[in-house]
Design goal:
Strand content: 35-45%
Number of domains: 3
Largest sheet: 8 strands, antiparallel, barrel
Distance between the termini: 29 Å
Shape: globular
Structural class: mainly beta
Number of helices: 3
Radius of gyration: 22 Å
Low-confidence stretches: 1-74, 140-146, 215-223
Helix content: under 10%
Mean pLDDT: 77
């Protein structure tokens, strides 16, 4: 009989705190009172709006009890470059969370207007800032893609040569990896691109190229993945013990639910997120808690989104900064929970054969996961112990081409799914 996930031994299920792990969960969902930021170095935003500043050390005192710092009383601090196109996407009185002086940590406030391509933000603790829109996010929007990121300089002549509806591949945040999307317009000399994974960007045309292999956007995610899939080919790590069966995929908000039926094997369930043509899935024995985080990898910077089986399809975000090569300690430089809270901490990444082992260390929690890197996308299954595995499916027309790993494993198995006719 196939040992596909049958060899998995799980510790008794531990109650999950809904976390912010784009790999790990945060300590609390409710926004804390403004912490004492006096101990942090205040970093003025560089000319590059995509740069990420790592916050300074957290204060030793309980941040919920610390008084709100005085950042200049009634004076409005100016932070970051002018981004008129992005500023226009924010409505007056919108609730936002912004990185004060590009310091890496977000604080809650309200947009009272725009000026010079910046948002006029009045923070809840009384301070005021004129800040680049790329340093803010809508408070009610957990997903990173809810606001349009602005990348690169204006090039009006080049932008005028593109038409709405053109399929493109662009370098997200001026990174080295291209992602597929559709041009929906142009503004201020940049292309307005809606990516297939839900993110949005206003980007310099030179960072994009026409996608000759596609003339129209793919079908909506809900129509493309939901349904019954046959396990066309399955093999355990190392190529041993082939197996067969089926997988049911269901839409779950901004995520996916998966349930495996494998003859002679224990039932398994999972939760998945799409990113960059990859369906990343965290799985465990049915009834055990599990989560998934998927990161875009660009050198030492990882931009991720995450969820768990307890989130009802809501998605959080997590961005990491650390050494290139996916090995070492990484700081969580920006993160939100599915309900809009924020958190911080560290993540260690360790290469192990064909996989990666991850460990999150937050204020009051720790989590572990196993990951697979494919096409610049790191898919990680995570949980409170060693009971969660991972599958990384490359999305093809009518087929999901998967590589998967056991919890803590260093080898990968194969699982190719074929859509069943209904």
């Amino acid at each position: 009989m196939p040992t596909r996930r049958r060899s998995l031994s799980l510790a008794p299920a531990t109650l999950f705190v809904a976390v912010a792990c784009a790999g790990a969960p945060p300590a609390a969902e409710a926004p804390a009172a403004a912490p004492d930021r006096a101990a942090e170095p205040l970093v003025t935003s560089p000319a590059d709006p995509t740069a990420v500043a790592v916050p300074g050390p957290a204060p030793t005192a309980d941040p919920a009890l610390a008084p709100a710092p005085d950042r200049g009383a009634g004076d409005r601090v100016v932070t970051g470059p002018s981004e008129p196109a992005a500023a226009a996407a924010f409505a007056p009185n919108a609730r936002v969370r912004c990185q004060w002086k590009n310091g890496g940590r977000e604080y809650a406030g309200r947009v009272v207007g725009t000026s010079g391509g910046r948002l006029m933000v009045d923070y809840d603790d009384g301070d005021k800032e004129a800040i680049a829109p790329s340093l803010c996010r809508g408070e009610a929007d957990a997903a990173r893609g809810a606001q349009r990121v602005v990348t690169g300089p204006s090039d009006v002549a080049a932008a005028a040569a593109w038409t709405a509806g053109t399929r493109v591949r662009c370098r997200w945040k001026d990174g080295s990896v291209e992602y597929a999307g559709t041009v929906v317009g142009a503004a201020d000399g940049r292309l307005l691109v809606d990516y297939d994974d839900g993110d949005k960007e206003a980007i310099t045309p030179s960072r994009c190229r026409k996608d000759a292999g596609a003339t129209a956007a793919p079908t909506a995610a809900g129509a493309s993945l939901a349904g019954e899939w046959k396990i066309l080919r399955g093999a355990n790590p190392g190529g041993s013990q082939p197996y067969s069966g089926s997988v049911r995929v269901g839409a779950r908000g901004s995520a996916w639910s998966l349930a495996w039926t494998i003859p002679g094997s224990t039932p398994y369930s999972g939760v998945g997120i799409e990113l960059g043509g990859i369906l990343a899935v965290g799985w465990s024995q049915s009834g055990a808690r599990h989560g998934v985080v998927v990161y875009r990898v660009d050198g030492g910077r990882l931009s991720g989104k995450w969820t768990s089986d307890q989130q009802s399809g809501s998605v959080g975000t997590e961005d990491l900064a650390g050494p290139a090569g996916l090995s070492g300690e990484y700081a969580i430089v920006a993160a939100t929970t599915p309900s809009g809270g924020t958190y911080a901490g560290k993540v260690s990444i360790r290469p192990t054969g064909k996989t990666y082992q991850l460990e999150w260390r937050l204020t009051n929690e720790s989590y572990r996961g196993v990951g697979i890197l494919r096409n610049g996308v790191l898919a990680v299954g995570w949980g409170t112990g060693d009971g969660v595995g991972v599958v990384s499916y490359a999305i093809r027309p009518g087929e999901l081409e998967g590589a998967w790993a056991q919890p803590g494993g260093s080898e990968v198995g194969v699982e190719v799914l074929q859509r069943q006719r209904t």
